[in-house]
């Protein structure tokens, strides 16, 4: 055949040569689109510098290492890494090192458009952060809960004799509810990044810098992230390599003398890549697996397609391998593609002119390709987009071939419903298995080019599941039925609120959380402010004590008490005590909306300091008698007015706060019953109790104990500006001293009108919202930027016990059909059911007396 650039007189040969040339061009374009390595890209660019040759040599070396893995005859050599260190860094191949960060779930699918756009922007910046000398693997894995745990998990210890029977019943209830879950899966999200380095010492600072930047970036969307250590990373690898096997790895089993490697302890006994002669599945021990590839996308890439796959009720993992391309190389690639298209357009136009056709009419495919390439060039130049080599893989596994085939069909069907072409990888399952392990290296050359936006649109956040180790039960997910387990100690700011209309299940939820706290944290101290007297039965059942504050009670709290912790009775504590007395004065005075007059503040401050100074030598604690007497000695008329208002608390029936405290808090669970106090007196009592809690908080902090405080009818502390200022300072200080405070309210719209109250809510990572009145719903929607879907979870249409749990960046719709039993009777607040229980108890008591 003559050279294609030379003309020939034979029309038939000329036509054949033209057809052959067109075929070569088409093949070249196809090769350019699908080739995985940047080395081929540079070869297309014509690069021949020393740097290019060095990169090409390195890429050929890595390709050789991949081939060696695929051809390995023993399982340990096949597993795709050389070593994993205790800090979690893995040497994947010679000269390649990776690290894995696990990040938490956040609410995306039901969030407002503005929140979704912010998450998209942050993820775009995260992917753009990685350079061409690194690679990234995103893994979302649905890992099944071991069969032996389902129905047998121990959520709460049963060792305390006071609470053993309640812990036993609670464990049984939660195990029964585990079986109601759609999938009984735990979901993990990993980001694995890989860099080149001569040795591990050179790799450590590179990976540490990336880890810090990745965690900081994810924190911008309130997504917590941490790097996996060696054992955690091996667990993540084994969960994909041997999904049904228990994790028994221990560093103690690694010994230089025994020549045992980490991979020897997680390797399966058998891997068969041709079970029954098939090329599209494999068998690991007794489990069958299949890796599928995401081949094609629809014309519009939606943000929910990945979520639809992840939400399938089956064990699987989705893996996205992302290889950044240097911006200069990406621009050159697109320009070269445009040059090819321009050449094809010229050829098409010349052919049309020769045949007498309209040369302006181009084939639709060529016209659309040209428009897409021009748009891509504009994105790369002007819109902060980058180009990546992308591979999408879906890994499914099951106990039988038939079950696996059903799962694969379901995955393909969901993909088709989202305009995705998903196909099994025939004859490449060996390479595919290594590619789905969270190691950062892609062994599969089924790739395509995607931009930053196209990758960031593939959201790793599906229906939110919250299952934090060591936490308490808050209900079941309305979407999946899985248990919602939250550990408030793991939140950045564990302070929070529980709010809902009367009859919404608010009190039931609070009692359930108090029980969670008592059972889950047996060393912590729990204090409840009980203005309605409804927690007494629960506290007695859990082995706690009820402290009644009332005119006819023997118990007393002195608002002048200071902590006896060494180093705390200083000027700072005196300043807080002055704030407390300003708040106490506000509780009894008819003040204006602006708060206490400045003159009153000065007088109260002077007299509080004088009361402590009076007993500086004898070491006694001042009382309200001291304070009242000092007020009467002041020259200002305002002082006498303040003294007159304090008089009823100093003498007479209401003087029970004018005594030395006799509550020792020897029991770790204390309920302060305030229901016998009048409205004004109740606020005074709450503020006095808060000062007592402050002293307990200091003491508990010194001995490493967390203090839990539950304040019912918390809205009463937002009635006066001075009280709000005091409570806001108390709230802020408490976070520094291991205080976890929960405000409980049924009317929140008035509370949220105060700026300090709004700040307290915004600085708290925990909110449990039940059914809200219209006005309260509007306040919460504005405060928390609730989407339309999230507002439906707390509107008037929901049932008692349903609601929305906000825990950090997680927003989970919940429901709770708690079964009747010992715990239900303790939690229940329905008047008719309580009356029925009392009648039954009275009947049984009378029957016993008659016997």
TrEMBL record:
Region (Disordered), start-end ranges: 1-68
Domain S1-like: 198-286
Compositional bias segments (type: Basic residues): 21-34
Sequence intervals crossing the membrane: none
Keywords for the protein's UniProt record, in alphabetical order: Initiation factor, Protein biosynthesis
Matches recorded under InterPro entries: HerA_central, P-loop_NTPase, RNA-binding_domain_S1_IF1, T4SS_component
Coiled-coil region: none
UniProt xrefs under Pfam families: DUF87
Residue ranges with Basic and acidic residues bias: 1-20, 52-63
Record's protein name: DUF87 domain-containing protein
Lineage: Bacteria, Bacillati, Actinomycetota, Coriobacteriia, Eggerthellales
